Amino acid sequence: MSEELLKASKKFLVRYGGDAFPNLFRFAKGTIVTDSSGREYLDFTSGQMCATIGHNHPAIVEAVHRAGERAFHLFSGMIPEAVAELAQSLAEDWLPGKLERTIFVNTGSEATEVALRMAKMYTGGYEVLALGGSWHGITGGAGTVSFASDRRGYGVPTPGVYIIPEPNPYRPYIPAATFEESALLNLELALKMFDMQSAGKGAAIIVEPIISAGGVLVPPRAFMQALRKAADDRGMLLIFDEAQTAFGRIGTKTGAEFFDVVPDIMAMSKTLGGGLPLAAVATTADIEDDLHAKHFTYYTSHVSDPLTAEVGLAVLKVIAQEGLIARANQMGGYLRRQLEGLQQRYEAIGDIRGAGLLLGVELVRDRESRLPAHELGALTTARCFEKGLSMNIRRRPERGSVWRIAPPLTVSIDEMDRAIDILDSALAESLDELARKR
Questions:
Q1: pTM score, two decimals?
Q2: Which residues pair with 30 in a beta bridge?
Q3: Which of the residues 94, 113, 127, 135 is marked catalytic?
Q4: 135 is catalytic
Q5: Which of 43, 234, 244, 415 is catalytic?
Q6: How much of the chain, in percent, has pLDDT values that exceed 70?
Q7: Is 403 a catalytic residue?
Q8: Up-side HSE of residue 363: CA atoms within 13 Å toward CB?
Q9: Contacts with 271 (C-beta within 8 Å, 6 or more apart), sequence order
Q10: Counting Cβ atoms within 10 Å, is residue 200 exposed (0-12), middle (13-18) or buried (19+)?
């Protein structure tokens, strides 16, 4: 049956880009995914960076069962009790500053659309500043403010989008004495160019607190504070897209807490649903009151769904009860030290960066030139998978060859040691193979 299904997948499915694997997959539990042949792999991408508490955590399974006894879906105007409870939990226990009113939707792309829609209606503007290397989704508006994705071939983009070159400590656009100085010079120039081109209709600055798809880039705190000021000075709203940084992965409740900067709107997704399609957008009471008075609408077939709300509540409870925020720091520190040990042995590992259990490892041909080692990255990633380790490699020519390593926060020391052993042998074999070719 699996062979027949594999053939069916090749014949009947639309190919949607990204990494493709040779087999179908059947099970997922904790940090392990199992393909249709029964082979197990360590999943160090947490699915699509979503399974923060591990695949199919018992609390999530129980939440799905509970929703099955109550309700999976209701008319959009009927607010389920679980949705009200989840909104209260976010406001009282998780969200920073005055962020307290939340709408629940499905995906990160959709959360971006909601956030942009809010900012444009509230300000009356349409111009949006976004960071290079960013990933906010692939729908119409979200795709326009995403610069780590393919942008060609999809028609005319939404107008009014401007770019801020992303702060990159390893590959600075404007060299300076310190990373912070370089990042601020970047921003100063980008804002000057925006002000020259702006029609005076600024709506928002949107940013991932840690620029993940762009190579796991962690901006300086002063840069994030400067974004806050830039938005205020121009009457724009500051949007944080916390798809990957909220709810513990980087060792704090949110990226806003990590940088001590509170946005006007926060988009959340991946890490809230624990593997189910749940996204949320939160803002202040003042902004929401204004939007409501202006007749803000965002009604879809699956807004405020009870099923995913039950799961979101379960995810947040597990993170709190199992102390996973502190664990992200502890385990992330251990993993970083193991990676730094490999860096001492392999010239090809140019840089290691990130926070908590969201880490980036940049591969180079040599540390002096810092030329990206794209062939090595692709070859080593494939070898890792053959040996039982799934990782994500970012290999866009303009942004280097960077592994994103983001296992579930429940990952064990033993699993991390196994992953490092696999990475070590795969890297050594790949380097030998490339040396023989030359």
A1: 0.96
A2: 55
A3: 135
A4: yes
A5: 244
A6: 99
A7: no
A8: 23
A9: 49, 50, 52, 242, 243, 244, 245, 246, 247, 248, 249, 315
A10: exposed
